[in-house]
Design a protein that fits this description.
Length: 468
Amino acid sequence: MAEADMAHVLVFPIPAQGHLNSFLHFSTGLLRAGLHVTFLHTDHNLRRLGAAAREAAAASPRLRFLSVPDDDPRAVDGLPRLMQALSTTGAAAYRDLLASLRRGGAAADDGFPPVTCVVADGVMPFAWDIAEELGVPAIAYRTVSACSVLAYLSVPRLVQRGELPFPEGGGDLDVPVRGVPGMESFLRRRDLPIQCRSLTDTYQDPLLKAVVAATVDSRRARALMLNTTASLEGPSLAHLAEEMRDVFAVGPLHAMSPAPAVATSLWRHDDGCMAWLDGQPERSVVYISLGSLTVISHEQFTEFLHGLVAAGYPFLWVLRPDMLGASQDAALQDALAAVGEGRALVVPWAPQREVLRHHAVGCFLTHSGWNSTIEGVVEGVPMVCWPFFADQQINSRFVGAVWGNGLDMKDVCERDMVEGTVREAMESDEVRKSARALAEQVERDIADGGSSAMEFKRLVGFIRELSS
Ligand code: UDP
């Protein structure tokens, strides 16, 4: 086997949809470059993906899927619990597995070379610490935006400067925040991760604490890799580069190394929505999807529904079966009755990237998860942002105030606001032009010789060097 082919990366995402998608696209890029990839799922998700994972592995002899226990099969639905389960039961199993797969370990007998490098989810510091203890170099991959990583990294400084915690009761959320480098002119309290709002004396929210700690701990990894581009997030990347051992901006990976959607999706797509879109006029449809984790209240659903109906455009709405709780079925019937035959389609899960690419889609009402954000950016679709948690608050600020490819509806969920914002996103030439210009810029980044394409090559070289 040629030296280059001996590079074998074990990739280890947390088992949430957005993370799995990004890691699978990354793996596809590594396979194309000639490397071997072991994709580490949790038992629960590998069972859930079943035949799709087997098919993907069968189609690529240098790819295999293995799994570690996640303790609680339902943990996939709750991020803090999931991270907890992974860092205990999952971590022990991961250590044993990596010890057997690394050079000098027992190794599997399926023809794969020993694992020479780990690329672990950037919210699991245990994964790179264990790898390094076992003599395997490790890279942290944060699947969120560079601006959000920089914000998390800045939280200790914000506490030190007295920017955090906010005054009792949250204070005025429109007050500018100083202390996140490069964002002084536009970042407000409301654009920081939402957990910052509930702090009292220090940043003791468990999820925020874990994510801030993981971000700080990324400095120990050989490098930090991000699914973004220099043209979208150049200043944030430059600030991160000052703090990390190395930084690679290699995205948007889904546009560079498309992986078969079927192998990544934990839910079954409703393909009927593509035929429905085919029957709609050019740029007439509002596509609504709030990602794989968000749960909304009945009141929020009702406000969205009324706002959408009043805006008057046909819409395609992804309502996952677990999104609204017990009232979901009745709410659905009401939704469909309210808009009339053929004017709206509600599906449990859609082939999102194809939907966004469809000529009938005029705007994307999104929760501003990073994958959804870059998928919308790549297709040049104007966005209406209604962020829930984590990096979503800052992503939506970049959309509304920095890139101008959409409107940030943050913190307000009232029918009039939904109606007005959706109308503006559908009709504004300015927003559409910015969305188009951004898509063209990103297309240049990922084309041969573009910044992300070059960064991906540099990363593959770096992994080969670490593997030699
Ligand atoms: N997605 C999809 N079909 C849907 C809704 C979402 O394929 O009906 C995909 C979407 O394309 C994206 C991922 O699920 O790749 C969601 O990731 P994101 O980071 O946007 O949000 P999260 O689910 O992590 O909150």
